Amino acid sequence: MALENTHFGYEAIKKIMGDGTRKVYFAGVGGISMNSLAKVCVHRGHAVSGYDRVRTPITESLEELGVTMYYESSADNVKDVDVFVYTVAIPADDPAYVYAGEAGIPRISRSDFLGYIMKGYESRIGISGMHGKSTTTGITASVYAAAGVCPTVFGGATLNGTGSSNILGGERAFIFEACEYMDSFLDFYPSTAVVLNIEMDHVDYFKSMDHIRSSFAAFMKKADRAVVNLADEDVMRAVKMAGVPAVTFGPEGSGADYTSRGERFVHGFAEFDILFKGELLCHVKMRVPGHHLVTDAIAVAAAAHTDGISGEDIAAGLEAYGGIGRRMELKGKTSAGADVFDDYAHHPTELVTTLKTASELDYEHTVCVFQPHTYSRTAELLDGFAKALGEAEVDEIVLAPIYAAREVNTYGISSEVLCQRIGEYGKKCTVIDTFEGIAEYLEKTLGSDDCAFIVGAGDIIKVTAFLVK
After folding, report:
1. Of 158, 209, 150, 197, which Cα lies nearest the Cα of 175?
2. What architecture is the 329-467 domain classified under in CATH?
């Protein structure tokens, strides 16, 4: 069971952090967001220490900054600290976490602390939605960089060309991925709340669509302005619940404030106009493939233009965007010369988008290797997964066992059950129990004109390590 988020809020945490000389400990400091929070604290003059299970390039970079690192959790780690920041992924019986509670050391969850950190920035652009957050955060970062802003960025995936998911920039703009899970985004302070889409997900937390819409409405209420997808009915219902004025974006003919025009695709790469209230704002030619990037680009244009970024800079930033890690990312080739792509898709809607693009890349034979993520999601969205994979215009599906993450299988679900359902669509589907076995199968079946898409949010990326030579 995951730990809960704290909800102290900015003023309370500001008081806890005091005059900048606090000793701050980060549990799970090697994580994507946590390590950047630690670095911010180092730059602000705090004494920083932290724990993570294994030594990685991230933890080594923290050590180089003077962070005291521990690779075993112990009460001794925190007997001299003033503040304990934790990721909800650590167990409730973590020795340092338990000691901090007993000793009265303030324990602050990652999202609550991130909200405190962002409050000092002039523009705070929060990218929310069930799908596309990481990509849209990366595109927004590219646009602001093109405008000479040098944004601070907290994303959920590595920004290609930077080697990092997070950038510590100036104080003009703070661009961040606003995750809805466990209502984490309600600890944030966006000046602009972007809502890309709303759909059923995280079924271990959200109990209904009303619950989800209510959470997104609360997120929008925290912002000075909302930038929302007019074509998404549930988004607009949440806007109505929030009772906030909204800038809208949507496809051509939708009547939104920001729309596209004249979309065309060449081998999956989009070229189109972006209009503001019917007038040309800019013309864009993307250099990363994907139909979904049109909607993401219009959303970014709406948020950036509303924040004072010119159409010229928006176009430059969109065209400079080079993608992010594990989103249609070409990792290399097999020994036989087949291309290997990684993608993070782990929801039926995301699979439809990813595999649509995969089918347009003109390979002779395309195999999708998919690792379902969590028993609850697989069970509750089984029909959607079966349809998305069964109707995909790829030649074959290979399933790995379900990635459990934080869960125990009380659902009676398995990859074999999903495979059977996929087969009802006439699609060839196989379950292979090990990553080594999957790699061996692909090595035998794929040639130089073929490709494999390695897809999922768990540890399926290990297949890529076996394949790419």
Report:
1. 150
2. Alpha-Beta Complex (3.90)
The 10 Å Cβ neighbour count of residue 345 is: 24
pLDDT tens column, 211-248: 999 999 999 999 999 999 999 999 999 999 999 989 99
* Separation between Cα atoms, residue 379 and residue 370, nearest integer Å: 15
- 89 token code pair: 């992924």
**Angstrom distances, CA of residue 288 to CA of 139, 319, 361:** 11, 9, 12
Query: Regarding the domain with residue range 10-110, which homologous superfamily does it belong to in the CATH classification?
Result: NAD(P)-binding Rossmann-like Domain (3.40.50.720)
Strands (E), 328-440: 329-333, 339-343, 365-370, 396-399, 429-431
Degrees to nearest 5, angle at CA 173 with 67 and 242: 110
**Cβ neighbours of residue 454 closer than 8 Å, sequence gap 6 or more:** 331, 340, 341, 342, 343, 369, 460, 461, 463, 464, 467
Asked if 120-320 and 329-467 have one fold, the answer is: no
Strand pairing category for 152-159 and 164-167: antiparallel
* 380 to 148, 206, 330, 409, 466: CA distances (angstroms): 45, 12, 31, 13, 32
* Cβ neighbour number for residue 462 with a 10 Å cutoff: 17
Return the axis-axis angle of helices 292-306 and 311-320, rounded to nearest 10°: 140
pLDDT at 1 over 70: no
Strand ranges (DSSP E) for 230-338?
246-250, 258-266, 269-276, 279-285, 329-333
Q: Nearest 10 degrees: CA dihedral of 78, 83, 85, 86?
A: 40
Q: What's the pLDDT tens digit per position in 381-440?
A: 999 999 999 999 999 999 999 999 879 999 999 999 999 999 999 999 999 999 999 999
Cα(371)–Cα(354) distance, integer angstroms: 14
Rounded to the nearest angstrom, the gap between the alpha carbon of residue 411 and the centroid of all alpha carbons in its chain is 26
**Contact (CB, 8 A) for 102 and 95:** no
Closest CA to 354 of 232, 427, 456: 456
What residue ranges do the domains of the chain occupy?
Answer: 10-110, 120-320, 329-467
Helix, strand or coil for residue 440? Answer: helix
Q: Is the entire prediction scored with pTM above 0.90?
A: no
Would you call 283 exposed, middle or buried from its count of C-beta atoms within 10 A (0-12, 13-18, 19+)? Answer: middle
Which CATH architecture is the domain 120-320 placed in?
3-Layer(aba) Sandwich (3.40)
Classify residue 394 by its DSSP letter: S
Residue 206's closest CA among 214, 218, 196?
214
